[in-house]
Design goal:
Layout (H helix, E strand, L loop, with lengths): L12 E3 L5 E3 L3 H20 L7 H20 L14 H13 L13 H26 L4 H50 L7 H10 L3 H5 L1 H22 L1
Antiparallel strand pairs: 1-2
Helix pairs in contact: 1-2, 1-4, 3-5, 4-5, 5-6
Amino acid sequence: MSKIYTRAGDSGKTKTLCGVEVLKDNCLIEVNGRIDDLQVSIDRIMAQLPVSSGDFDNLKRVQLLLWQLGGEISGQKIGDLVKHPIRQCDVDSLENWIDAIPPKVTSFQRFRTIIAIDTNEVRVRTRELERVLVQYMEEYKLRKVVYAYINRLSDYFFALSVRLEQDWQRVWNWGQIFMDVIKEQVIKLIKHLEQDNPSTPLSNKLRKMFKISDGDIYGWTEYWIKYFGEIIQNGKHNEQRN
């Protein structure tokens, strides 16, 4: 079994797929590094999506094209290792995906759900790749459709992040409504359990599990009347004992 390390890059140089030796700070290596960053970020989103979803399939396609772009950047000719190069139809597909999820943005967009935050991070990574590609275009040849695709890709990730944020917020809101209904029923159960005994193991467990206070059970007005009533009763009891 061959070792993972080769020591070949200890001098600050590396080789492209074509065998050309370049410094590791060469813009060609920088571009491929940014593609790698982007791929890892996309992995994170896909890990949170259902495998059967359309979003998952779209991201699989994006990853394939980015992987092939890395080969093209490294000097491989289209048709050899690069069998799925970025074409105009891929730019058109991105635009169709964006049009299918029109984001409703009325102000500066911030994200509060993990999957939307991660998707917005992918947008940032895409923008970084886009900026590095400008330097690459000054030193090497790059097909115009490639840059157009990366430019459109960042727009897609923004639209997707907004939609995922809105989707998860709807799920969260429905979850809150569901939990409120459950809590209401639990409160009724605790009231029933505590009719004869103010503190039972089951009622105490339910209180802790659902974070239910006396104020939730009796209503705050009724709770304070009950609370001060107990103080008055205890005071009278102590007077009688004395």
